[in-house]
């Protein structure tokens, strides 16, 4: 497989955590930027849309108790 | 104690043989492909169900 020889010069105990760490850090950075620079992602994480939907569909008063 | 550097199949500085390096690389590539496929599917769902890029 092409580039497989990289593991002859880069120790896997260094290269693999470095690779996975780079993926984790960069993906976290992108999603954090979305969280801080958009209006809809914080609302989504906050559950605001769900609460609004529940508030608009919930009955204004509790239904009367069933007769005994 | 045998000297590990005496093995002619091992390559330094890592001390892996070329077949070992290729096997490790195959697994890394396969893991990357599976991760990528799951991430692509997740981004498709995010595109459909969120205001992202709309």
Proportion of helical residues of chain B: 55-70%
Largest interface, C-beta closer than 8 angstroms, per-chain residues: A-B, 19 and 17 residues
List the strand order in the largest sheet of chain B: 1-2
Low-confidence stretches of chain B: none
Briefly characterize the structure:
Chain A is mostly helical and 68 residues long.
Characterization of the model:
The complex is a heterodimer of chains A (68) and B (54). Chain A has a domain at 11-57. Chain A contains 4 helices and no strands. The model of chain A has no long low-confidence stretch (mean pLDDT 84). Chain A is mostly helical and 68 residues long. The longest helix of chain A is centred in the middle third of the chain and has 26 residues, at 12-37. In chain A, 69% of the residues lie in helices and 0% in strands. In chain B, strands 1-2 form a two-stranded antiparallel ribbon. The mean pLDDT of chain B is 92. Classes of the chains: A mainly alpha (68), B mainly alpha (54). The A-B interface holds A 1, 3-12, 16, 19, 23, 34, 38, 40-41, 44 and B 11, 13-14, 16, 18, 20-22, 24-26, 28-29, 35, 50-52.
């Amino acid at each position: 497989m092409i580039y497989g020889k990289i593991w002859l010069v880069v120790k896997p105990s260094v290269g693999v955590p470095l690779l996975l760490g780079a993926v984790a850090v960069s993906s976290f950075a992108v999603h954090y930027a979305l969280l801080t620079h958009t209006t809809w992602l914080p609302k989504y994480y906050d559950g605001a849309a769900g609460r609004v939907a529940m508030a608009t569909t919930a009955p204004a008063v509790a239904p009367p108790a069933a007769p005994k | 104690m045998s000297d590990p550097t005496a093995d002619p199949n091992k390559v330094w500085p890592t001390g892996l043989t070329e077949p070992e390096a290729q096997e490790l690389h195959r697994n890394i590539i396969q893991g990357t492909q599976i991760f990528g496929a799951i991430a692509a599917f997740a981004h498709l769902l995010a595109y459909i169900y969120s205001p992202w890029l709309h």
